[in-house]
Design goal:
This protein is of the alpha+beta class. The protein has two domains: 5-142, DNA methylase specificity domains (Adenine-n6-DNA-methyltransferase TaqI, Chain A, domain 2); 198-339, DNA methylase specificity domains (Adenine-n6-DNA-methyltransferase TaqI, Chain A, domain 2, Alpha-Beta Complex). The protein has ten helices and 22 strands. It has helices at residues 66-69, 102-109, 112-121, 132-136, 145-184, 249-253, 300-309, 311-316, 329-333, 342-380; strands at 5-7, 12-14, 28-30, 36-38, 52-54, 59-61, 74-76, 83-85, 91-94, 139-141, 198-201, 206-210, 222-229, 239-240, 245-247, 265-268, 270-271, 276-279, 284-285, 289-294, 325-326, 336-339. The strands form eight sheets. It has a five-stranded mixed beta sheet with strand order 12-20-16-18-14. Strands 2-9-6-7 form a four-stranded antiparallel beta sheet, covered by helices on one side. The longest helix has 40 residues, at 145-184. It is elongated, with a radius of gyration of 25 Å. The two termini are 12 Å apart.
Length: 383
């Protein structure tokens, strides 16, 4: 073990402050993404006096089901006003913040290697829980406070850049949506369309391709040759630049008719239905996703925004099911949408294309910045 590695338990202590006077009402939970979120738990009839209070610069974690989730839900509370959290979660704080910075420690908890170590030590119960004593025995590097602050500052600078990019992309997408409504929804009667407009089925605007997963029992089907898009890759993404899994050349060629060209539009139709994203390079998807390879005379951005606008219809097809939303290829292909005149579509494409180009550039930059964050976290273990 390197000389500057120290035992975590020598620098932290448990905090057990209860909400006995019910002065704190904000209830929070911790996600596996290591963030605090407002709790959605049903607390009717619950004795809230037994809940723990968490304050700024304190941590909360869940040490249960670590092996099952492959992560420890753990987060640093940064709000000025206190909140309450279930008594099942350990709440702890740093003993001396002039020796160990809370933000530095949270960076360490965010490392993939930390979760991997926690999973290895999680042996309690069927789902693999971690004992507090084992958690305290974890080792981490603790450089001098000046070096810690420099590491934190570098990390937070990149985080702020990511936040600026994401906020800008959100505003630009809202602008594109507003233009779409102005052109194609406001004052437009689907029963009495303008001259040159028509209603048509999705299958008439492009080729519909339903994804497929190659046999997972053959590990050689997966590698780093081609992005393999699944629903988690689609959340909050106009463009898909990174996927959790990639196919090998063998896996991709085994179902080459499922390959999507750049600018194809993916729509999730099973499970979390109604998500829409644009492909940025040749890719394949799993069977939960139907994709549209648009014909040349159709605006990709018009079809993208139209599918976003139709997401509630895609979602509604699964309401009758007990497992989740399920819109098969035929049903998806038969969905109706408005197609404006060629001139109108071209005018709209010219208006929104610069907007989407900025979104694409900023999204790609954000992807690279997130990779840089991961590198900074990995570097901590080599300090």
């Amino acid at each position: 073990m390197r000389k500057n590695y120290k035992r975590l338990g020598d620098y932290i202590q448990l905090v057990d402050e209860r909400n006995s006077d019910l002065k704190v009402s904000k209830l929070v939970g911790v996600t596996i993404n290591k963030e605090f979120i407002p709790s959605v738990a049903n607390t009717i009839g619950t004795d809230m006096t037994n809940y723990k209070i968490i304050r700024k610069d304190q941590f909360a974690c869940c040490l249960m089901q670590v092996r099952r989730d492959k992560k420890i839900p753990i987060a640093l509370f940064l709000e000025e006003e206190p909140a309450i959290i279930t008594q099942a979660y350990p709440v702890f704080e740093i003993v001396e913040t002039h020796v160990l910075l809370p933000e530095y420690l949270m960076m360490w908890f965010s490392r993939v290697e930390f979760d991997r170590q926690a999973c290895f030590h999680a042996v309690g119960g069927v789902r693999g829980s971690l004992e507090w004593s084992d958690f305290c025995n974890f080792m981490l590097p603790i450089p001098d406070i000046t070096q810690q602050q420099a590491i934190v500052d570098e990390y937070q600078t990149i985080e702020r850049r990511i936040q600026i990019n994401e906020e800008l992309c959100q505003k630009l997408e809202e602008t594109a949506q507003a233009l779409y409504r102005k052109y194609f929804i406001d004052d437009i009667d689907p029963e009495n369309l303008p001259e040159g407009w028509r209603m048509t089925e999705i299958k008439e605007i492009g080729e519909v391709i339903t994804g497929k997963t190659p046999p997972t029992d053959d590990e050689d089907n997966f590698g780093n040759f081609m992005p393999f898009i699944t629903i988690p890759d689609m959340h909050n993404n106009v463009f898909t630049f990174k996927t959790e899994r990639y196919l090998s050349k063998k896996g991709a060629l085994s179902q080459k008719n499922k390959t999507l060209p750049e600018n194809s539009i993916c729509v999730s139709c099973i499970g979390t239905a109604g998500l829409v994203t644009i492909v940025t390079e040749p890719s394949q998807t799993n069977q939960q996703i139907n994709s549209i390879v648009c014909h040349k005379d159709f605006s990709v951005y018009y079809i993208f925004l139209t599918m976003r606008n139709l997401s509630h219809i895609v979602q509604s097809h699964g309401e009758k099911g007990s497992v989740g939303n399920n819109l098969n290829k035929q049903e998806f292909s038969n969905l109706m949408l408005v197609v404006p005149s060629g001139d109108m579509m071209k005018e709209f494409q010219n208006r929104v294309e610069p907007i989407f180009e900025v979104i694409k550039y900023r999204s790609k930059e954000t992807h690279k910045l997130k990779e840089l964050l991961s590198l900074l976290l990995a570097k901590m273990g080599r300090e």
